[in-house]
What does this fold into?
Amino acid sequence: MVVASLKFLTEMESASVPSHEHSSTTWSNANSSSVRAKCDPAWDHLTEELKNGKCSYRYIHCGKVYEGKGINRMKGHLAGIKGDVVACTASYDPGYRGRNYHALRAPLLREAKREVQLIVDSHRSYWADTGCTIMANGWIDTRHRTLINFLVYCPKGIIFIRSFDASDLVKNAINLSNLFDEIVDWVGPANIVHLVTDNAANYVAVGRILCGKYRNISWSPCADYCLNLILKEIGKMDHVNKLAKCASKITVFIYNHVALQAWLRTRKNWTEIVRLGPIRFATTFISLGSLKEHKHDLQALVTSKFYVESRYVKDKKAKAVVKIILDNQFWNDCHVILHIVSPLIRLLRIVDSDEKPAMGYVYDGMYKAIDGIKKNFKDKKRLREPYVNIIKDRWDT
It folds into this structure.
């Protein structure tokens, strides 16, 4: 890394001054050498020595001594660039020998494993005193294998304990509960107070089986997973899906035409529109919120002299986009949906954050989300019920 960075610095310095300007910059280079000597990172690899009244420099890595050489030539030596100076023969301490293949795959691997085991053992001593939570995270890797990761949380921190390949396993409640039983036995049933999984039907059944077998264990669904499923279900509702498609048409149209982007970027306090993401369900609503913030800018664009006199006016797709932008009902519907989901998105951000424990905020946040929906629709039970039912079905599993 040292060699690569110094080589890059040397090349940058030589490329920064054209050849025909070298003579004109000689005086300024000499004049600024004292400043440069203090700030150039190459000096960190040299030690200054005084011998017979003359200044010389010793390279830390190879031990060679040079007298009166410029910093560029010294960097050339360190970077191994052949030329006026001999390339440095070492990037580390003199006599250092790199580890061979056997050392890397046998002794070093055993040593690394021993260090990890010590860390795990230090956490295990806390489990009996404070209790712990088992967390299971299922996912599919790039080779399409179904993997289940098991982690243990306690106040000291989180420890990864096992990854199980469940590709060939029938993931029903019985098979999964047997797998979870192995993890419970390894951690110690008396040390476990909480089990967290997603809220798929088979995992819910596993939670019931384990809670019935071990009375000291309670089960709860993963808050992050539940919130994403709630947002996914709300996003599938016909009117919400229609709004998302309209929003997508606007952003695609704007970002497919450079002239329109250039005009919008001249607007005061303009920020880029957040576009829809393919994975996280919250991005649908974040994109709607971003678009709503730009409502007046977009309406100013399609009613401006620049746009009216442009070639876009006669385009069929452009006309459809303009119709959406000038439709007040579209913006009113966006406002209502954003008012409904904003507490859920705020809660999702809290849950995803590692800055502070989120458990104290989760239940209060879900209560406020449901209460906010009821207040938003007031006495219109028919309108609020679909949203409330989605939240309750996913959260009260």
